[in-house]
Every structure is written in C-alpha cells, then in structure tokens.
Design brief:
The protein is of the alpha+beta class. It is built from 13 helices and 16 strands.
C-alpha cells in the first residue's frame, strides 16, 4: 500500500493514457532497427538492398533485364530498372494512387499472392515504404503506359501529388533517396559493399545486367554473368589451388522449389559457403543450408565406404561434417513461392525445404561421383586427411589435459595410461617394500623416481573410473 502511494505521489500513473499508438511511418522512424537491422553501416546499405531487391523481383518475374545503381556526390542513391513500373491507377480502398500506397503504407505490395510474382524476395510489403520513411527526401519516377509519372516525399510524407509529367516509350521505375542524417550517424556508402552485393545478384540471376556508378570517385562496374552461380564459385576460388578444374553444378526442381548448387574444393582448410533464398543472402543459413550440409556428408561417406577408401587406411577413421567442408567453396540458391524468413532483414530461411535439398544433392552428387571417380577420390582423400588430422588433434588435446604436475615427463618404458572405463575389469595393485614386481617389471622404488608418481597417477585414474561408473 505504501509502495502504491509513493508511486502515485511521484506522478507515475499507469493507465490508458500510457498506451501510445504509433502510425506506420512514425513507428518506423521510432524503431528503425526492427525493419533494417541497425542504424549503422549495415542498416544504411540495407536501404539500397530493399530498393534493388524490388527491381530484382521484376527480373525474376521476367519483366526486367537491366538495373542501374548510382551513388551521387551528396551520398544520395538512384536505382533504375526497366521493369513494368509501379502501378499508378487509383487504389480502390485507400482512395489514392497505388504507387503512393506502396511508398507510404506498411504491408502494402504485390507480393502477398503468387499471381503478380511467382517468386520474390519481397514478402511483407514494408521494404520501399521503410526506405521512404527513413529518408529525409525521396523522388519517385515511373515510366508506364506511355507516360512519365513523378512524386516527391520528405521523411515518408508526400510533398506533391502523383502527376504525369511527360510522354515516354520505355517502362520501369526510378527511385532516388537520401538517408536521413537524423536516423543514421553516418550516411556515406561503401563502394566495395555495394559492388559485392550487386555482383552477387548478377551471379544469382543469369543474364541480368547490373551496373554500379559512384560519382564520388568516378568508379564504374558492370556485372553480367551467363554462367550463374558456377561462375560465382570460380570467382570465390580465384587465386587458390583447386582440386578439380570446374565446379560441380547441380540444378533441379522439387515441389515448386527451384534448387541450384555449385561447389568446388581447394587446398585450404577453411569453408566458404553462401546460401540464398529468392536471391536474398541468408547470412544465418536456414533449412536449405542444413539440407545441403547433411546430404553432402552422407553422400561422401557413402561413396567412400562403397569405394573401400576407408578400409584402405591403416587406422580406422570416420568422416564427419567438419571434414567434408574443409576447403569447400559452395553456393546454395533456392527459389520458392511464399518463403518464411526470420524477421524483415531475412537473415535465416525457416521454410521446411531441408528434405527437398537433401534429395537433390544425394541424387545429383552421387551421379557426379559415379561419372567422375577420379575427382571423387581426390575430394574424399582430402576429407580423410582432414579426419585423420582432427583425430590426431583430439588425441593431442587429451594427452595434454591428462598430464599432471606429478607426471611432467610421461610414463616410463612400457607403462601406459589406463584406458578401461569399466571398474569391474580394472585391478588396483597396492605395493609396499623396497623391491616389487609391478606391471610385470621388476623395479626398485627407490631407484626409479618415475614409478611412484606413475603409480599415484594410476590410482587416481582408476578411482576416477569407479566414480564415473
């Protein structure tokens, strides 16, 4: 009771007036990290990805084959595509042009069904409207139905009506925006970051032309790859010694899911795997990456066992997932309708397609190994070497951990550590006297300084066994 009076006396009253209701644009500006991940460099570049991904969705739908991205001197960004252009006719329920609805209303877009876009990276209808909300100014230009349409915004609010400003024969959309310095501490874009992501998009969409121009430094780049992700893997392996000349490429469709995988091994020890879902870089992986990893391990183990390569080893080894991914460079790309991502930034794919990816990899990789046995043996040989190195490292760690202050020099001669964990099969020898027979070796305790520490250590080990049991 006293606590309530104290709280009330300080004016801390919690009632209906404490509940705030934020509008769509206001909510984005209040909590931007919820929509773009952060307000740092990652979130700043995410604005470009959201706009560019809409253009890529047009390309995947078959209506766009060129995307141009420009960074201007004032760090504003322009993204242009030659797609169909955002619709400009009046929206039936919102009573304003569809383009304005797309730019200002959260959860408004053409990707909530599978009619307008069979496959798309956009799902929630918040991408470009979030960019608009987090920009201090944005200019929209649409080429559609033979006319040019224009509209301007400030911090997500229209400053003019959508109006026709001329005639044109081309189609597409042009969006120019400047990140709001009130939201972002740094509004300077990195050319390398932009070029890396745009290059990925070009790899993932065969034949799509993407250009990047930086007016600040006069740098220009053009990305267009007809080889798709196989060229992507070659690019990632540039400057490295590879085990086989051409990447292993697998492609197929399982239950409306298009799956593409390319992989190539090099002589290094690190793995480098990129996974994508509808061209979105799923940096946290997901079901498609899990399916690839498990199928790769299973297929390599099966082939190694069938070819008798494991029996050829003097010491028995078993290959696990870490072994098969040593020196692996791979790209896993899936395209599926209505994917389920973890959050708006789409870092992880949650759609249950693990089994579909596993099925494709098991089938296609097995066929490849059967046709290219020499490459298969090279890859499996590297995996076996990795397994033997891992096992040797494990034994070295165990030996180091088992050493104690009483056993700095190890056990003498023929003596060895106790390996049995079953107390019923262990014997404990209690020794007294100057001369005794221990482990079948006649030694003098006084003349062998290593015997006493070794005996004490053996007793400690056996006691540990009994305690564990």
């Amino acid at each position: 009771m006293a606590e309530k009076e104290s709280s009330s006396a300080k004016g801390h009253k919690y009632d209906a007036t404490s509940i705030k209701v934020l509008g769509g644009i206001e909510a984005v500006r209040k909590r931007p990290a919820m929509y773009i991940g952060s307000t740092g460099e990652l979130g700043l570049h995410h604005l470009v990805w959201e706009v560019a991904d809409n253009s890529v969705d047009e390309a995947m739908a078959g209506f766009c084959d060129e995307i141009n991205v420009s960074v201007h001197d004032d760090n504003s960004v322009t993204v242009i595509d030659n797609g169909r252009g955002i619709p400009v006719d009046m929206h039936a329920t919102e009573k304003k042009p569809a383009a304005e609805v797309v730019m200002t209303v959260l959860h408004a877009g053409g990707k909530f069904d599978s009619d307008t876009y069979k496959v798309s990276g956009g799902l929630h209808g918040v991408g470009v409207s979030v960019v608009n909300a987090l920009s201090d100014w944005l200019d929209l230009e649409i080429w559609r139905d033979g006319e040019v349409w224009e509209q301007s915004y400030e911090k997500g609010v229209p400053t003019s009506k959508l109006k026709a400003s001329g005639k044109t024969r081309k189609t597409g959309t042009k969006i120019t925006f400047h990140a709001d310095p009130e939201i972002f501490a740094n509004t300077v874009y990195s050319y390398d970051t932009l070029s890396q992501r745009l290059r990925e998009l070009a790899f993932l969409n065969k034949g799509l032309k993407i250009t990047l121009e930086d007016e600040r430094t006069n740098k220009k780049a053009e990305f267009r790859f007809t080889g798709g992700i196989a060229e992507f893997v070659k690019y990632l392996n540039r400057g490295k010694q590879t085990l086989h000349d051409s990447p292993i490429y697998m492609e197929g469709k399982r239950e409306q899911v298009d799956i593409e995988i390319a992989l190539q091994y090099n002589d290094s020890y690190a793995e480098n795997i990129f996974s994508f879902a509808n061209t979105i870089n799923t940096v946290d992986g997901g079901s498609h990456l899990s399916g690839f990893r498990s199928a790769l391990t299973r297929t390599i183990n099966y082939y190694a066992s069938s070819a008798g390569m494991l029996k050829e080893q003097k010491d028995e080894v078993s290959i696990n997932g870490d072994d098969v991914r040593e020196g692996l460079v791979a790209v896993v790309s899936v395209k599926l309708p209505q994917p389920q991502f973890e959050g708006q930034t789409k870092g992880k794919l949650n759609s249950d397609i693990k089994g579909l990816v596993e099925s494709l990899v098991n089938e296609r990789l097995g066929e490849y190994f059967d046709k290219h046995s020499s490459i298969a043996r090279k890859i499996i040989g590297k995996c076996i070497d990795a397994a033997r190195a891992r096992e040797a490292a494990r034994k070295a760690r165990e030996l180091t951990r088992r050493k104690s202050a009483l056993d700095s020099s190890g056990l003498p001669g023929k003596l060895s550590d106790c390996q049995e964990r079953d107390p019923a099969r262990c014997e404990l020898f209690l020794v007294e006297g100057v001369t005794t027979k221990c482990w079948g070796t006649k030694k003098s305790a006084a003349s062998s300084p290593l015997l006493a520490p070794a005996l004490a250590r053996t007793i400690s080990t056996l006691t540990s066994c009994a305690t564990t049991k």
